[in-house]
From TrEMBL:
Catalysis performed (reactions): phosphoenolpyruvate + UDP-N-acetyl-alpha-D-glucosamine = UDP-N-acetyl-3-O-(1-carboxyvinyl)-alpha-D-glucosamine + phosphate
Binding site for phosphoenolpyruvate: 22-23
GO biological process terms, semicolon-separated: cell division; cell wall organization; peptidoglycan biosynthetic process; regulation of cell shape; UDP-N-acetylgalactosamine biosynthetic process
Protein encoded by which gene: murA
Full protein name: UDP-N-acetylglucosamine 1-carboxyvinyltransferase
Function according to Swiss-Prot or TrEMBL: Cell wall formation. Adds enolpyruvyl to UDP-N-acetylglucosamine.
Amino acid sequence: MEKLIIHGGHELHGRVKISGAKNAVLPIIAATLLAQDKPCVLDEVPYLNDVCTIAEVLRQLGAKVDFNRQQHTLFVDSTVLKTVDAPYDLVRKMRASFVIMGPLLARYGKAKISMPGGCAIGTRPIDLHLKGFEALGAEIEIGHGFISATAPNGLKGTSIYLDFPSVGATENIIMAACMAEGQTILENAAQEPEIIDLANFLNIMGAKIRGAGTNVIKITGVPKLIGHNYTIIPDRIEAGTYMVAVAMTGGDIYIENAISEHLKPVIAKLNEAGVKIEEDIDGIRVSCNKRPKAIDIKTLPYPGFPTDMQAQFMAMLTIADGTGLVTETVFENRFMHVDELKRMGACIKVDGRTSIVEGVPSLNGCQVKATDLRAGAAMVLAGLVANGETEVSYIHHIDRGYDNLVEKLCGLGADICRVDN
Ligand SMILES: CC(=O)N[C@H]1[C@@H](OP(=O)(O)OP(=O)(O)OC[C@H]2O[C@@H](n3ccc(=O)[nH]c3=O)[C@H](O)[C@@H]2O)O[C@H](CO)[C@@H](O)[C@@H]1O
Ligand SMILES: C=C(OP(=O)(O)O)C(=O)O
């Protein structure tokens, strides 16, 4: 089993370049399934386990997929597919692969996908995706671990109100509606930058989508989409993770590619904690020369504070000056990092959806595990400031979402390596 070994206590200095966004590239790779003519070439594709998994899902459907890891490009030719069935062994590896249902349904009027199931951070139902498909005229059947959707006469545009601004449901419904007859109006839609990136890609392929990035998205169906090249936006959560790293270790780094517009709540909260942040068009400079101040955070859908930054901020609060409250409203079980942080000497009490984090002067390195992707990032951050050695296991979770983490942190002066034993 691979592990990360970290020796804490090094300030971070230098430059780090942010990779393409995991949560943008995954639905965009799914969207390539809509291209009936011409292949797509995606640029700034991060090398992540999740990208490899969805690429494999597309290969199983019959697409030709070639991932050039060095160039960060992904070639996808989905013009001819051989099946619309996605098997359990791949979908279970990554919930986000369920986002292929919308494009398959739009293009073929049918799709059969293994139930994605829950994951460590919550039960993560897909009822909103399915209600959207049904509103567009699809019939849904669930049985034997699979979800089948059929629309033999094609999908028809309609009005859909999402009970919650689900990111995945917004993406799946946009893609399903792209080739539906007439107009679809999606209300209470998710507004994340990754939704805008998906809509931009679909529009370049010939779709007619307006309003992405607001809570009302209008999609006018078109008969056909054509493959195109596209560059993925930088990963705001990766950028935010490096920002918190400096807040914890001290130092001064420049984060190339980071888009401050996408990081407003993260920047506001770091400012409140006393971290210095300077924004320009090429990136963000972050510096810190004292212990961060305790702050309160509450996760919310975009443009609120991102749940995918909650664990990293909690790691920061464990060594902050004062007591901070962390309230998680998006996922019901996203506090698994608490027990791991406590192993390192953190002082945290959980009360329902809120954690009360009393900052301690220092953490102590020990053996901990990555219980999910961002919890794993939080353990790495804690290890960067802890006394002595921290060993983080179950790092396959971290490899789902951080491109070249070890190399990037070493480049900033951290003492971290990957070992296999
Ligand atoms: C690949 C990807 O983009 N993943 C992101 C996406 O996940 P994902 O798209 O799964 O997140 P959603 O926005 O759908 O989920 C948010 C909440 O809505 C609930 N829900 C969702 C769908 C549904 O049909 N029914 C339902 O009840 C979920 O259980 C959860 O409690 O957005 C999350 C919220 O910002 C992020 O943490 C994930 O990193
Ligand atoms: C929860 C996350 O991702 P996913 O939806 O892919 O599990 C995440 O990126 O933190």
